From TrEMBL:
One annotated GO molecular function: sequence-specific DNA binding
Name used for this protein in its record: PiggyBac transposable element-derived protein 3
Source organism phylogeny: Eukaryota, Metazoa, Ecdysozoa, Arthropoda, Chelicerata
Organism from which the protein derives: Araneus ventricosus (Orbweaver spider)
Gene label: PGBD3_1
One Pfam entry name: DDE_Tnp_1_7
Limits of the PiggyBac transposable element-derived protein domain: 4-105
InterPro entries: PGBD (IPR029526), PiggyBac_TE-derived (IPR052638)
Amino acid sequence: MDRGTSDRKFDTKNEIAAVRWSDNRVVSLITNFEDTRCFTKVERRMKRGKQKVDVPSCVVSYNKYKNGVDLFDNHMETYFSSIQGKKWHWPLFVNAFETSLVAAWKISKFFAPEQALDLLEFRRHITIAYLGLCVPKN
C-alpha cells in the first residue's frame, strides 16, 4: 500500500467499519463511531519534501482522543509488579490491583495537585500502609 491510501469494509448489520490506512506503517482501526468515507489532509515529510496525504476521519479522531489511554497504559507499564503466581486467577488479580493503584494515583493528583506525589512515591506510601496493617506492633 502506498502512503496515504486506505481500504475499508463496512458491516451494515452491526454498523461496524474496519479501516486500514497506510502511513509510515499500516494502521488498522475498527469503529462504530466515525464515518469512514470522510477524509482530511495532513502534511507528511517525504523524500521530496512535505506532501499532503489523505487521512480517514476515524484516524484523526483516534489521534486526537487517545492521549488518556496511552498515558494510562504507560503508567501501568512503568512499575508493573513482576510477581508471578501458579494459579490462573493471579494475573487477573495483579492487573486489577495495578489498575486501581494507577487510577487512585491519578485521582489523588486531580483532587490535590499541591500535594501530588509521583507514581513511585505513591506506590511506596500504599505499600508502607499495607505493611503497617500486617506487621504486629510489640
